[in-house]
Write a structure and sequence with these properties.
Length: 107
């Protein structure tokens, strides 16, 4: 099983989760983070650290977020690993409560 970053992370890209990951399975894109399912050890440390509740265990992934399982796998193949917390985007707070943000994902 793996953990999955979902829609809520898009345009927020808060990196609190990255700091606690013991295996460096997070990858960073322009405005989104993903988890490499091959690297994730299912430790669950990242889930409670996410300030926007964007991380789910694969088995608990809401039905409307299922496409993010494949998206995390696909994007983790090309995006660089991120291992340290970074400053959040300047407009992250404006995007926190917005839903259905997939159209804003930058690859």
């Amino acid at each position: 099983m793996t953990y999955v970053v979902t829609d809520s992370c898009i345009r927020c890209k808060l990196t609190d989760c990255v700091e606690v990951c013991p295996v460096d399975c997070f990858h960073e894109g322009p405005n989104f983070l993903v988890i490499d399912p091959e690297e994730c050890i299912d430790c669950s440390l990242c889930e409670p650290e996410c300030p926007v509740d964007a991380i789910y265990a694969e088995d608990d992934l809401p039905s409307d977020q299922q496409e993010f399982l494949e998206l995390n796998r696909e994007l983790s193949l090309n995006w660089p690993v991120i291992t340290e917390m970074k400053e959040s985007p300047p407009d992250a707070d404006e995007w926190r409560d917005i839903k259905n943000k997939l159209q804003y994902l930058e690859r």
